[in-house]
Amino acid sequence: MDTQVIGHRTPRVDGENKLTGRADYTTDWYVEDMLHGYPVPASIAHGTLEALDIEPVLAMPGVVAVYHHGNFPRLYRSPSSQAHQDQVSEVRLPFEDERIHYDGQYVAMVVAERYEQARAAAQALQARYRQDDGARPGLLYTREDGRPLESEGGSRGDPESAYERAPVKIDHVYGIAPESHMQMEMHATLAQWRDGRLIVHESSQGVIYQQKAMARIFDLPEEQVEVISHYIGSGFGNKLFMWPHAVAVAAAARELGRPVKAVLPRQQDMESGGNRPASRQRLRLAADEQGRLQSMRHDSTTETSFVHPYVDSVGSPTLSLYACDNAAISQHLLEVNHGTPCPMRAPGEVSGIYALECAMDELAIALDMDPLELRRRNYNHEDPAKGLPWSSKHLDTCYDSAARRFGWERRDSAVGSMTEGDEILGWGMATSSWFAGRQPCMARVELRADGTVLAACGTQDIGTGTYTVVAQTVAELTGVPLDRVEVRLGESSLPAGPLSGGSMATATTLPAVAAAVRAAIDELKEVATDEDAPFTGADPDGLTFRDGALVDAQGKRVTFDELLTGQKLGSVNGDGQAAPGDEQQQYSFRSFGAHFVEVRWDPAITRLRVSRVVSSIDIGRAVNPATARNQVEGAIVMGMGMGLFEKLDYDPRDARLINNNYSDYIVTSHADMPDIDVELLDNPDYAFNEFGARGVGEIGLTGIAPAIANAVYHATGKRIRELPITIDKLLDI
Amino acid sequence: MMESSETSAQAGETVTVSLTVNGEPRQLQVTPNVVLLDALRDDLRLTGTKKGCDHGQCGACTVHVDGKAVNSCLRLAVMCEGRHVTTVEGLARDGQLHPVQRAFLEHDAYQCGYCTPGQMMSAAALLEDERIAADDASVREAMSGNLCRCGAYKNILEAIQDARRDVTAGTGEGA
């Protein structure tokens, strides 16, 4: 497809709003008569709330109400069905009972006139607990495995006997500490009731899901609930599905008859607003002497809270990434006294690929083979998990290109052999991958008499650039310049769009927008060929729409704004919808890439840094190369955190969260930045959708942590199998 | 740690604070425990300045006080009597984006945009700060009080170095 706008770099259409402070994030909403809510977190992780000393707090300045188990209205749990789009992050309602299952679980919420008053009262509220013995501080503190998950199992061939027969094999256990999303905008809700209708501003990656969940919980018809999320201070998965704070705020607003807003303090956001669960993963790989994989087994355990069974599907990529006739995955789930985990960027796959790609490195060493060569020898051309050909796989090109730019052929495989001054260089690599998904979607487009075009869809822009790629699609198909395209997203009253998750928003939304553009143009042609119109009597199908104008065979040209103005019409509208189709039975869709990482290790001062990352990623068509590249670069930055810094630390004695802030939970800072060289291959995947785009939000994160771990081994000879690789693990003590 | 200011605030007594915000004289009527960040947002409805941690750890709330970049979450409103405060809303002048804003747009130096006001306020200040050298490593170090979880640091650095040319050409804020 020869395109003018799609596939070309353009500044974000919402850029000026973000740069001038005009962008209306949920936290920025203030409405008349609004009260401030401030949740009160439990200070134990396992036990029972015995008493709350409410009276003194009610007497504090500005305090309007305190909600808790004793007075919270009776509501209904959401069924939390993905199919019915009413999924929530935690099915347990706030204040449902007095059992405490994790540190930071809400025991009350104070509502006051001013923020400072709510905060003061929440901090003053005295609670008495009975703390039970036997709190589980987390999966990585125990050998327990919990219960098996049939849904996460899968196998082909006979991996057990193939493993026994094979000449070269490895068997190792890998771990990943729980991580926090640490999105910059904390969870926030503003709820108001107007004539029985609930209007919620929420920092949400899924306004439609939250609308439906709220309708179930408050027993309202769906159309009586509106959820708005115009700008989101990102989410990385923890804003996909609603959390209990939103229920508490909406209930308080109903009880008090006044709008209530709550912005979680960072500490609470980290305790109870979602996390990536820890995982323990055993990898058993076996190969013949030529390095051809004979057997792969990936047995995992992940953790969840006691109130919601979240499953991170860590084994899923293992059945697809390499050619191997004998493979099996299995998974267990252990309940621990943590806040409920939830999807976090590349959920499941990033964890599984970490363990698999470390194991491949260890297998390469066992084979005395270059780790890149081992990947090449096990390259597949179809998805062995589905028995379908890949729609468009160019991983070999990614390997070639990234290895060349990195200089991989100069690698000396001997540990610690590459030095520069006082520093030892470590070079590691890993494969990167993320499945390509697509959902049904609806959209609406209006061609308006003032010469502008409106596109609307009930999806969101979490910073990935959805506003911009929707505008580009409209501009591409109408010829109307970007500055005359308006995009509305983030309202549940708009035509139903997808979650901003799974890297699916672009591939899901753009075909529906395109269908709506075409429907609006068809409508315009009807208007144009009506009585007393510029093309009266002409065949609508004989007209073409180009550069914002209808043109007939004789070359007569009328712009849509002239036409609409002349016909005294404000606009013509088109409704569009799109969904995945037969192609899903013909191909397997997945994106692939390769990361090459250089670390520098200075043993004299115990300093480890990532100095260079070279990546090639194939995402099909990049609708906007600038925002797409930004996604991969940002994912590399987050992957450095996963590899080197990030760990939610729970006290082994009582399961309380120790590092609930940005100083003690370390994320990658600007000073940590390596040189990053990202290449996006441009191979449009037209089997997937008409724009050839597979999505880009998550793939870049996969493979970074193992590439770092493999580079650290190359530099130090230390195989650190539990993330993060903090420098204490590298000390010789 | 909050207790003393919270306690005095419980008397409900408010203090009048006169300050200049984005060039305009403003008055606040606040209890002593009101933080500058919350006063800007809740009282003056200047919501461009963001709260990311409330502990001076993330930099999202960075504003200029008398020309210096500070974390507005670490400063009580009552400490700002007579001060000149500039927020992101005051960064553009005469309808023209500040060179840092233009460069952030051009270089896609953000994703979600939530840390961006703070990033830009720090960037605008460092470009005027003679103590901070112009090389990339110095800028990275100087910008490390502003976390970006989306990880747009590469583009942020490019934007700042690009804006440097315009600022040194004399079109900068000079606050």
Automatic annotation (TrEMBL), chain A:
Q: Where's the Aldehyde oxidase/xanthine dehydrogenase a/b hammerhead domain? A: 20-133
Q: Which Gene3D superfamilies match?
A: Aldehyde oxidase/xanthine dehydrogenase, a/b hammerhead, Aldehyde oxidase/xanthine dehydrogenase, molybdopterin binding domain
Any keyword Oxidoreductase? Answer: yes
Q: Where is the composition biased (Basic and acidic residues)?
A: 142-162
Entry-linked InterPro entries: Ald_Oxase/Xan_DH_a/b, Ald_Oxase/Xan_DH_a/b_sf, Ald_Oxase/xanthine_DH-like, AldOxase/xan_DH_MoCoBD1, AldOxase/xan_DH_MoCoBD2, AldOxase/xan_DH_Mopterin-bd_sf
Region Disordered: start and end of each range?
136-162
GO terms of molecular function: iron ion binding; oxidoreductase activity
Sorted alphabetically, the keyword list is: Molybdenum, Oxidoreductase
Pfam families (alphabetical): Ald_Xan_dh_C (PF01315), MoCoBD_1 (PF02738), MoCoBD_2 (PF20256)
Keyword Oxidoreductase assigned to the entry: answer is yes
Q: According to its UniProt record, which protein family does this protein belong to? A: Belongs to the xanthine dehydrogenase family.
Cite the PANTHER family for this sequence: ALDEHYDE OXIDASE 1-RELATED, XANTHINE DEHYDROGENASE
Q: What is this protein called?
A: Xanthine dehydrogenase YagR molybdenum-binding subunit
Q: What is the originating organism of this protein? A: Modicisalibacter xianhensis
Q: What is the lineage of its organism?
A: Bacteria, Pseudomonadati, Pseudomonadota, Gammaproteobacteria, Oceanospirillales
From TrEMBL, chain B:
Q: Which domain of life is it from?
A: Bacteria
Keyword flag Oxidoreductase: yes
Identify the InterPro entries for this entry.
2Fe-2S-bd, 2Fe-2S-bd_dom_sf, 2Fe-2S_ferredoxin-like_sf, 2Fe-2S_ferredoxin-type, 2Fe2S_fd_BS, Aldehyde_Oxdr_Iron-Sulfur, Beta-grasp_dom_sf
Is Ligase found in the keyword set? no
Q: Boundaries of each 2Fe-2S ferredoxin-type domain copy?
A: 15-91
Q: Which Pfam families match?
A: Fer2, Fer2_2
Q: Which UniProt keywords apply?
A: 2Fe-2S, Iron, Iron-sulfur, Metal-binding, Oxidoreductase
Record-level Gene Ontology MF annotations = 2 iron, 2 sulfur cluster binding; metal ion binding; oxidoreductase activity, acting on the aldehyde or oxo group of donors
Recorded hits in PANTHER family, A to Z, give: OXIDOREDUCTASE WITH IRON-SULFUR SUBUNIT (PTHR45331:SF2), OXIDOREDUCTASE, IRON-SULPHUR BINDING SUBUNIT-RELATED-RELATED (PTHR45331)
**What protein name is recorded for this chain?**
Xanthine dehydrogenase YagT iron-sulfur-binding subunit
Species of the source: Modicisalibacter xianhensis
